[in-house]
C-alpha cells in the first residue's frame, strides 16, 4: 500500500508519464503522416486501384488469389501502380521489363521497411546487407559457387533424391494422391546441408525436421507481418501471439544453425579433418566462412557468421523446394512435355545409373521446361528496393530518391507484351531462337543486376538433376479434386499443398 504522503507525487509522475507517451505518440504520428505524404506525392503520376482508408491494398493482397489480383491490376494499369500495405508503407509496384531494368540494373538498397522484418531471424546476412559490407561478403562467398565446387554436388543431389524416390515407391503403391511439397523440402534441405555445410550421410535428424517446420512458419508469419500495418512496429508485434510465435520459430532456426556451426568447428579441431580440408582444391561455403579474415587478419564475428549460415540455410532450400514442386505440378498438368523430358533424360543417361556434370548441359528440353515453369510459378514472386537516387522510366514518368519499389516477378512473367498468351505453358519460348530477341529483364526468377541470386547456378543444377531423376522413376498425374491454390509466403507455396498421383515406372511395377 502506498503511504498517503507519497500518493500526490506518484500520481503527478503518472500524469507526466502519460503526457510524455501522448507527445511521443503524437510526434510519431506526425512523422508517419509526413512520410505518407512524401511517398504518395512521389507516386501521384501513377494511377492505381482504389485504396481502403486504413488498410490500403492489404485486404485484397491477403485474400486467396492475390497474385492473380495483381495480374488483373497490371492489365488495368500498364507498367506500374501504387501498392499500399496500410497507410504508411507504399510501393510503386512494377511489372514491365523496361521499368524493371531502370531499377534492378542499378544496385539500390533493399527496402528496409520489408527486409528489416528478416533481422530477428536471419540477421544481416548477404540478403539484407548493404554497402561495403555487402560487397565484401559477396566477394568472399562467390568462390563457394565456383564451377569446380559445384561439380561434385551432382552426386549429392542424386543421392538425396534417391532416398526421396524410394519413399515415393511406397506411396505410389497406395495409388492415392499425396502432397509432394514437404518431401521435396526435406530432400532439398538434406542436399543443401551436405553440399554447403559438409553434413555426413546420416540423413535428416529431428533437429533438421524442426528447422524445416520452423521455416515454413517463419515465411508465413513474415508475409502476414508485411501485409498487416498493425504488426509493423517491433514493440507491438513482439507483444502479439503472432509475434511471440515468430520469436519461438526463430529460436528453433537459431538452435539448428548454432549446431551446424558447432559441429564444423569441432571437426576443425581434429588434425586429420583439417588436413583433408587443406588438401581440397576448393573450399565449401562453411570452410570459406570459418577461414575468412579481413585485411587486418580478423575473423568474421560470431553474429556475421551466424547471419550468413542462417541466410543460406533458408535461401538455399526453400526456393529450390518451391521450384521443383511447381515444376512437377506442371509436368503432371502437361503430360506431353513430361514425356518429352523423360525421353531426353533416358537418352542422355543410356545404360548408366546416374547423371554426371557433363550431362547437365545436354538436358536442353528439360531446362526449357524448368524455365517455363519458373516463369509461370516463380519461386520468389516479389522483391523490394528503396531508391538511393531518382529514376526516370522509359515513358518519362519518374520517382524521387527514397521511393519504395516492388518488383512483382509473378506479374512481370505474365505481362502479355513480353509473353504472348502468357497463361499457356510453352517451353519453346526458351529455345535459343525465341529467347534471343526477348528483353533481358522480361524473365527474372533470380532477380538481376548486382543483387541477383548468388545461388542461381547451384539451384539450376539441383533442379535439373532432381527433376530428371523424378521423371525417370515415376509418371506424375494431377488429382483434379485437389488442385493447388497459389499462396505467396515470401516464396511461392500452395495453401493446400501440391497433391500428385505417382505411377512407378520401375521394371516389374506393372507400368
Ligand atoms: C530456384 C531457386 C532460387 C530462386 C528462384 C532464387 C531467387 C532469388 C532472388 C529473386 C533473389 C533476390 C532477392 C531480393 O532481391 O530480395 C535471390 C537472392 C539470393 N539468393 Fe537465391 N534463389 C534460388 C536459390 C538459391 C540458392 C540455392 C541459394 C544458396 C545456396 C540462394 C542464395 C541467395 C542469396 C544469398 C541471395 C542474396 C544475394 C545478394 O543480395 O547478394 N538462392 N535469390
Automatic annotation (TrEMBL):
Heme binds at residue 453. GO terms for cellular component: endoplasmic reticulum membrane. The keyword Endoplasmic reticulum applies. Signal peptide: none annotated. Keywords: Endoplasmic reticulum, Heme, Iron, Membrane, Metal-binding, Microsome, Monooxygenase, Oxidoreductase, Transmembrane, Transmembrane helix. InterPro entries: Cyt_P450, Cyt_P450_CS, Cyt_P450_E_grp-I, Cyt_P450_sf, Cytochrome_P450_Monoox. One of its GO terms (molecular function) is monooxygenase activity. Coiled coil: none annotated. The chain crosses the membrane at residues 13-34. Its cofactor is heme. It is found in: Endoplasmic reticulum membrane; Microsome membrane. The keyword DNA damage does not apply. Belongs to the cytochrome P450 family. This is Cytochrome P450 family 4 subfamily B member 1. It comes from Microcebus murinus.
